[in-house]
Amino acid sequence: MPSPTHPPETTHHPAASSRGIRLLDRHWAWLDAQPIGAGATLRRLVERARRDIDGCYRKAAAKEACYFHMRDAAGDRPQFEEAARALFADDYPRLRQCIAAWPDDVRTRIEAMLATADGAA
């Protein structure tokens, strides 16, 4: 495992010349093995993520927003850490148990955000 003082080896690659992208050697090896080339593969990966056809990025962003709301509104409440674990484990019944004693307005907002996260996928 690399230490903070010795980061993993990275290599500059011609496909990333305009912005100086740095990837690990194993990433460049995988990109170089793609039949359409490293640059075209990176462009396709970025476009696929940008379109987010299956909603996985929108769902992750909605869950993260829900977490930040939970942290800001109820970070000092009982069961906060367990609720956060349940949120990221997609264990919504457990999450609802954990937040049952929280103020109504906080719970209502979390429920609305969960509906957004579920609808994003």
TrEMBL record:
Pfam families linked: DUF2239
Family matches, as InterPro entries: DUF2239
Protein name per Swiss-Prot or TrEMBL: DUF2239 domain-containing protein
